[in-house]
Amino acid sequence: MKIDPSLSAVVTGGASGLGLATVKALRAQGASVAIFDLNEEAGAAAAAETGASFVPCDVLSDDSVDRAFAAARAVQGQERALICCAGGGNAITTIKQDRETGAITIFPTDKFELVVRLNVVGTFRCITRGAAGMATLEPIAGERGAIISTASAAATDGQMGQAAYSAGKAAIVGITLPVARDLSRFGIRVNTIQPGLFATPMMLRAPQAMLDKLGAMVPFPPRMGDASEYASLALELLRNGYMNGETIRLDGAIRMQPR
C-alpha cells in the first residue's frame, strides 16, 4: 500500500499517544486522516495541529461508530487504512483483603466487562465497519485495504491488577489471525502491534522516579518507547503487502514482571 495523498485513513484513539503519533506520520506522507476519539477537546486540538479531520466517536457504541465512519467518508472518501488505537484499562486485583478488617472484596464484574468491551469489542466494532467499506473498493495492486490493531505486552505478560486489561488485549491478539483469514478473500490485510512500555501522556503522569525505573527494566534500549516508533511500525505494516495475520511485539525485549 502506498502512503501518499491518494490514501484515506482512519485512526481511532487518534487524539493522543500512539494514535496521535500515527496521525502525524500519515499526514507527513500526505495521507488524508480522520481522527476518531471520545475526547472532543483533544481531538479538535490534534486536528488543528496535524491538518487531519476530527470526528467524535465512542467505540463502545454501534451508532457512534457508524456515524463516525459515515462522517469521515463524507469528507475524505472511503478509507483504505484503519489503525485502531482506542482502548484503556484499570488496576484492580481479582480479590482484595482489607489489612485492618480482613474483609475480602472482589473485582467488580461490571468494571472487568467495561475494559474488555472497550479494548476488544470496541476494536472489533471498528474493524467490521472499516472492512465493510474497504470491501467496496477496487483493488490497487490486488489489495483493497489494511487494518492494524493495538494490543499490549499485558496480553501475554499481564501484571497484578491487570486481569481485565490483559483479557481485552489478549483477545485482540486472538482475533488477529481469524479476522485476517476472514478478510483475505476481500484483499484486506490485518495485523496487530503489541507495544511494551511507551512514553504516552497517560504513562507520563507517573512520578519521574517510577518512569526511570520502568525504563531501566527494558533490556535494550533501556528506556520507554517513543510513540513515533509505534507509528513507524504501523506505517511499515501498511506498506508491506506480505505482512498479514501477524502480531508483532514492539517492546525492547522486555517481559513484564508480576508487579
TrEMBL record:
The keyword Kinase does not apply. It comes from the Bacteria. InterPro entries: NAD(P)-bd_dom_sf (IPR036291), Sc_DH/Rdtase_CS (IPR020904), SDR_fam (IPR002347). Keywords: Oxidoreductase. Pfam families: adh_short_C2 (PF13561). Gene3D superfamilies: NAD(P)-binding Rossmann-like Domain. PANTHER family: 17-BETA-HYDROXYSTEROID DEHYDROGENASE 14-RELATED, SHORT-CHAIN DEHYDROGENASE/REDUCTASE. This is SDR family oxidoreductase.
